[in-house]
Specification:
With about 325 residues, the protein is mostly helical. It is built from 13 helices and no strands. Helix 5 packs antiparallel against helix 10. The two termini are about 20 Å apart.
């Protein structure tokens, strides 16, 4: 199994490299792999800034976002024991969106923005949604995990409705365009500050996964079995929710909500390398990065140069998969 996992990871790494090259090549100006290599090694070529200051931050942010969403989906599904669970459905992204929209609409007085302003308020919004989910489902943390999923859907609907009220009441025309652009999930405004913040969040996601992988393996056996083995089940579940809320809230602050990545990728990973979380951490990160980067390249190939918002592409691919899981026998891990 170790050799199989290594082979899968190498294939995914190659797919990611090709996706990155495609992302650096496609746009208003087409660049050859040779142009890209010379630009990245410091050679002075025409329009070098397009590669180093526009396209490279975009592909890096896309890759990091895909990896973070895939890992957070893995952690959520270990918590809920249901392949339909992901941060988008659980209300984390809608809570982050509420925090971001408060900033966009100027309802929070901020004198100056830094690289951490958006992820900070997005994190606050996702934490608020987390508290509501826990409040609605706390009594079921050791009883019925599916109720946490229902609580997440309810909280997501509440926050979406609140966002709609804010837009209707306070938004001006230019703010509406900005909010709509953010809501669809896009990497058009990627910059090096966003890449740096998401790189740190990616590190947190990986370290958490390595430390808690054994606990998540035990958790999917069932809450009572895990407790019998000495695990403090409620604390582990709260830790998963907190870390997932932090990494997803901070990421979608820059990209907008990109749905279904956290639901689909864990399913494909488990079908290839099994259910061990330690083996799946690297695989999920690589697959999520390659998948979302490929979706962004596809969006720019369909509608050059800026492309469709990536969230539209993932929704087109994710909704049929969601229905397949919903109506198939694979309704539980």
């Amino acid at each position: 199994m170790r050799n199989k996992t290594l082979q899968v990871n190498l294939i995914l790494l190659v797919a990611l490299v090709f996706s990155v090259i495609g992302g650096l090549s496609i746009g208003s100006f087409a660049f050859s792999p040779g142009d890209i290599l010379r630009a990245l090694t410091g050679a002075d070529i025409p329009n070098r800034e397009i590669i180093t200051e526009l396209r490279l931050p975009r592909v890096l942010l896309t890759s990091l976002t895909g990896a973070i969403l895939a890992l957070s989906g893995f952690y959520m599904q270990a918590l809920i024991k249901n392949p339909l669970a992901d941060p988008y459905i659980m209300g984390v992204t809608s809570g982050a969106g509420l925090g971001v929209n408060f900033l966009i609409l100027g309802l929070i007085p901020i004198s100056g923005f830094t690289a951490l302003t958006l992820p900070f308020f997005a994190g606050l919004g996702s934490m608020l949604s987390l508290l509501l989910v826990l409040g609605l489902g706390f009594r079921t943390l050791m009883e019925d995990n599916s109720r946490l999923l229902i609580a997440g859907v309810a909280v997501s609907s509440i926050f979406t409705a609140l966002t709609g009220v804010l837009i209707y009441r306070f938004a001006e025309s230019d703010q509406v365009r900005q909010i709509v652009f953010w809501t669809f999930g896009s990497f058009g405004n990627a910059g090096w500050e966003a890449v740096g913040v998401c790189g740190v969040l990616m590190g947190i996601a990986l370290v958490f996964g390595w430390i808690f992988s054994r606990k998540m393996d035990i958790l999917i056996l069932g809450d009572m079995q895990a407790q019998t083995l000495g695990m403090q089940v409620v604390r582990v579940k709260i830790a998963i929710l907190l870390v997932t809320s932090l990494i997803v809230g901070g990421t979608v602050a820059f990209t907008g909500p990109v749905g279904f990545v956290g639901m689909m990728i864990p399913h494909f990973c488990r079908s290839v390398v099994g259910i061990s979380h330690r083996k799946n951490i690297t695989t999920a990160a690589l697959m999520g990065a390659a998948f979302l980067t490929g979706c962004d390249v596809l969006s720019r190939a369909i509608l050059p140069p800026a492309g469709l918002p990536a969230g539209i592409i993932t929704a087109i691919l994710g909704v049929p998969f969601f229905l397949y899981i919903l109506f198939s026998r694979k309704s539980r891990l």
